[in-house]
Amino acid sequence: MRKTNDQRLMSLYHGIKAYMDENSCPPTFEVMKERFGYASMATLHNDVQRLKAKGLLSEVGSRIALPHITGYTDASIVGAVPCGLPNEAIEDIQATVKLPTCLFGESSDFVILEASGDSMTGKGIYSGDWLVVHRQKDAQPGDVVIAILEDGSTTCKVLRKELSGKMYLQAANPEYPDIIPEQEWTIYGIVRRSIHIVS
Fold this sequence. Notes:
Elements: H1 5-23, H2 29-35, H3 41-53, E1 58-60, E2 63-65, E3 72-82, E4 87-88, E5 90-100, H4 101-104, E6 110-116, E7 130-135, E8 144-148, E9 153-161, E10 167-170, E11 186-195
Parallel strand pairs: 3-6
Antiparallel strand pairs: 1-2, 3-5, 4-9, 6-7, 7-11, 8-9, 8-11, 9-10
Helix pairs in contact: 1-3
């Protein structure tokens, strides 16, 4: 038997709660459409708006969230990082923003850097975007990292591993060369999310 609009609405709500219990973060609209059997994205958006009007949902970026279980953690905006050729790091606390813990966890090691340059456009990172960075020294091949090179300059690149086991840094734009450090270098952190700023 076909569900009524109210039955479909509550099924969506309980489905979202179950998804968050399983994954510790809310689903995207694309995930909801596939998982909850919506044939139309417009119908899904309408149902989400109805749940928001009832106070059962809110939106966090491209995801939705359950307001009563969403907390926040503070992250400082600390300057800019080149997404192009390496350049001197700029670190100066400018402001503090709140990040939803349902997306980022409760770590105090998050900072926000402004991207500068176009070497990472293949990863959806554009000049002026905010990069939510978790400060940590270790990373896995394929992670988007902030690296501090031997001369103290910084860059945002994809961490890669050669067959020999040597790590190097790869741009996500074919116009930029790979960076293969010859001396000691470190990882400042991993980019967990890019936030596009619309002026």
